[in-house]
Each structure stands twice: as structure tokens, then as C-alpha cells.
Amino acid sequence: MRIMLVLCVCCTGCSHMAQDSWTGQDKAQHFIGSALLTAAGNEYGQQQNWSQQRSNSFGLMFALSLGAAKEFYDSRPQGSGWSWKDLSWDVAGAAAGFALWNLGQ
């Protein structure tokens, strides 16, 4: 959780921000990808015989850290720019993946 906060604070001053909209194919990809990564992280934790709480935490942080890393990569001068909108879709997808995986248990 702390790493996410540090990344967010460090990247709020990025001069290379994306000029994107709230909708689009890439937003659906962020949502679905984060949902799948969260579910996969939860399943991995369960296969490791972790507690449900630890598996849930791992699944969420796995997906969100990869989403933040992707945005950090995009913030390079050659990249498309940091997008808070993409990161928002990552959070929404991770929440959906978390809920669906736990409903399936």
C-alpha cells in the first residue's frame, strides 16, 4: 500500500500526462486486465494455503501495482503519458475482480 502512495505522489508532478478520455478500448482493457489479475492473485494465494485475507490483499495489490507500474512506464517522454483515468479503471477492475472471485468461493 505504501508503494502505491509513493508512486502516486511521485507521479502527480509528471509533466507528461496523457490526453485521454474516460471511455475507449484501452479503458476496457485496463478494467478487464485488472479484474483478471486480481482474481489470479487471489487464487495464487489460496493455492499457497494463505488466509483469505492475505490472499485478497495479495490479489488486489498485485493488480494495482502492475497498473501503477504500467502508468509509470507510460509517463516516460516516449510513452503515451501518465493517465489517472487509466489508473481509475484499474482500481475499478481490481474491485470487480475481487468481488467476483470472492462470490465464486
Can you walk through the features of this model?
By secondary structure, the protein is an all-alpha fold. The chain has one domain (24-103). The chain has 4 helices and no strands. It has helices at 2-11, 25-47, 52-74, 84-103. Helix 1 packs parallel to helix 3 (52-74), helix 2 crosses helix 4 (84-103) and helix 3 runs antiparallel to helix 4 (84-103). The mean pLDDT is 89.
Q: What fraction of the residues are assigned to beta strands by DSSP? A: under 5%
State the shape. Answer: elongated
Total count of helical runs of at least 4 residues = 4
**Proportion of residues in helical segments:** over 70%
Distance between the termini: 25 Å
| Average pLDDT | 89
Radius of gyration: 14 Å
The number of domains: 1
Structural class: mainly alpha
By DSSP, the count of extended strands is 0
Elements, N to C (H/E): HHHH
The biggest beta sheet is recorded as: none
Low-confidence stretches: none
